[in-house]
Design goal:
About 0% of the residues are buried. The chain is built from 1 helix and 4 strands. It has one domain (about 10-65). Residues about 60-65 have low confidence and may be disordered. Helix content is about 15%, strand content about 30%. The chain has one helix spanning about 10-20, and strands at about 20-25, 30-35, 40-45, 50-55.
């Protein structure tokens, strides 16, 4: 939305929440862990290394977005 700038905070929250973790305090290195929205995800770090996240046993209904 034009004029509704939150400096990317809401989109950042959505990406973190979809990946199943969220920083409690950005400077503390403490994270909350939750369910992954997707079946799996791969994060590529600046140094080229990759971190994979995979779920086991998630119900199909939990992995489907249906507004």
């Amino acid at each position: 939305m034009s004029g509704n700038d939150d400096a990317g905070q809401m989109s950042t929250w959505y990406v973190f929440a979809s990946l199943g973790f969220y920083p409690v305090n950005p400077v503390s290195n403490e994270y909350m862990i939750s369910s992954l929205l997707l079946k799996n995800a791969v994060i590529t770090l600046k140094n080229g290394k990759k971190v994979g996240i995979k779920t086991n046993g998630n119900r199909k209904k939990e992995n489907t977005f249906n507004p």
